[in-house]
Amino acid sequence: MILLFTTLGISLAEIQKHLSYSGNLETLFTDKKETLKKQIKWLSFNLHNLETYLDNLKTNDTMIHPTKITMKPFDYYYIEKVGPYAKIKGYCEELTTMFTSHITTLTIFTGQEYNPTRSHMKIGALATSQTKIKKEFETKVKKETYYPGTVLTYTHHGSANLLSLFWKELEKYAKLHNFTIRTTASDFEIYRKVNSKDLTKQYFEIYLPIV
Q1: Taking Cα atoms as reference points, which of 30, 47, 80, 5 lies closest to residue 200?
Q2: For the chain, domain boundaries
Q3: Alpha carbons 30 and 12: distance in angstroms, whole number
Q4: CATH homologous superfamily of domain 67-209?
């Protein structure tokens, strides 16, 4: 059993520690079973994504296959931030605390240039009939309507850390396929589902305005 555990990547030190604590190797397998299932799921998920990216490269010369759509205007609540892209998650978590119920968060990049360290952003929440701001934040959170018009959009499933990469791929796709990027409108992304415990279940949408 010890030999089998080592083939699963469980170290001898971990096995020894578990034995000294419980004296039962079967419980170690029970403890590790869910972790191993998650690892298998994550590897399968990444393998599928990699195959998709490679297929896209063959057909589009980019890793993605976006869609051109015309979006209707939408209302959203927001707070303004200036900071690095790496802090967007924290900004969204801060905004979430200002509402009484679940919100779908988004970021509108009001600066036109790519600036990963000091970007001007509106960290927002899609407005619905159920969206309510906590009383103490009513003066801090603003509301407005955004008019996206025609956009190229791509939905990314997986880690949010890859969003910057796919923004570059989206811009590359636009140039390769002769789409004119609309510089008078702001790029934006919507975080449709965020699940830090299971990255395979989360997905995000990025939107590039075009003429």
Answers
A1: 47
A2: 2-60, 67-209
A3: 17
A4: Regulatory factor, effector binding domain (3.20.80.10)
- What values do phi and psi take at 101, rounded to 5? -145, 180
Contact 2, 15 (CB under 8 A): yes
Q: Retrieve residue 103's tokens.
A: 């919100």
Q: Which two tokens stand for residue 89?
A: 């998650």
Distance (Å, whole) CA 95 – CA 83: 15
Task: Give pairs for 136-139: CB < 8 Å, separation 24+.
Answer: 137/98
Which residues face 191 on adjacent strands? 105
- pLDDT tens sequence across 34-79: 888 988 999 999 999 999 999 999 999 999 999 999 999 999 999 9
pTM for the whole thing?
0.86
Cα Rg of the chain, angstroms: 22
